[in-house]
Design brief:
The chain has helices at about 5-10, 25-45, 50-55, 60-85, 85-110, 120-135, 140-160, 165-240, 245-275. The protein is mainly alpha-helical. It has two domains: about 20-205, no CATH class; about 220-275. Helix 2 packs antiparallel against helix 6. The radius of gyration is 36 Å and the shape is rod-shaped.
Length: about 280
């Protein structure tokens, strides 16, 4: 019968069949990895128009290196999400490349263009970088990244473009970026924690179920063994009562005593296994 299948699998040492399409941490990580990779690449491609409008204000070598490495890393995140290999290193690379670009941006921009360039295009990629940090790093590192990197970009912009942009305008833009990055980080964290809870609950339920199945099988086997041993003892005692030969009667009594000893040992061993 169908209900006997889990018992048979448990007795054979195989784990019970898990439900179809379970909500697990591995499945959530796959969905998050693919979604973050696709979102990052599409969002970055959308900002190409802004980037192309500021290329004249940047040094060519820096611009070429940034475009190749940053967008190449984003393509890597998409491929890693599809094949489910190297998702964390791919997203970590994007986050670190953005930090490197931020650190070298003051040296890459042409000084004459500081007053004419509108908002730096790095703001367009900031949300992508914080999303990748949420995917790749531990929670406390991702929190620091989400707060420190936007603040660093705002500080550099105020220092380099002093008189062109006010600290208040820069702070508002930084605050907006932190809110976006924090929202993504919160969603990723909540989904991961929920999936961990489901995994723990499912694992606990399967462990308890397997233990109950083993106890049931042990109890059934114990009843069968008890019945066999009791029949053996009863048969031996009846044989001893019917015989007239003292030697045969002594032998039958010894056999009955041995059978009862085996029964007591089996019961004690079963109790130890159950505990």
């Amino acid at each position: 019968p169908p209900s006997a299948a889990p018992v048979t699998r448990a007795l054979a040492g195989a784990p019970p069949r898990t439900p179809d399409n379970p909500i697990s941490l591995a499945r959530i990580e796959t969905i998050l990895g693919r979604g973050a990779g696709a979102f990052g690449l599409l969002f970055a491609l959308q900002s190409l128009q802004v980037i192309s409008g500021q290329l004249d204000a940047m040094r060519p070598a820096w611009s070429i290196a940034f475009l190749i490495v940053f967008f190449g890393s984003l393509v890597w995140t998409c491929v890693a999400g599809v094949i489910r290999r190297g998702v964390v290193p791919a997203h970590a690379t994007v986050a670190l490349v953005f930090v490197l670009a931020l650190a070298t941006w003051p040296f890459a921009i042409v000084p004459e263009a500081l007053a004419t360039v509108p908002q730096p295009f790095l703001y367009q990629e900031l949300t992508v970088a914080t999303t990748c940090a949420a995917m790749a790093f531990r929670l406390w590192i991702a929190v620091i990244y989400t707060g420190a990197v936007p603040l660093g970009l705002g500080f550099l912009e105020v220092v380099l473009r002093h008189g062109v942009i006010t600290p208040l305008d820069s702070f508002l833009q930084v605050l907006y970026s932190i809110i976006l990055g924090g929202s993504v980080l919160m969603i990723v964290t909540v989904l991961r924690q929920a999936a961990l809870g489901v995994d723990w609950a499912q694992g606990t339920a399967l462990t308890r179920y397997s233990h109950a199945v083993r106890q049931h099988a042990t109890e059934v086997e114990r009843v069968q063994v008890d019945a066999i041993v009791h029949d053996s003892v009863l048969t031996t005692l009846l044989s001893a009562a019917r015989t007239v030969d003292p030697a045969a009667r002594t032998l039958a009594a010894t056999m009955a005593a041995n059978a009862m000893g085996h029964l007591a040992a089996a019961e004690q061993g079963t109790d130890d296994d159950a505990s």
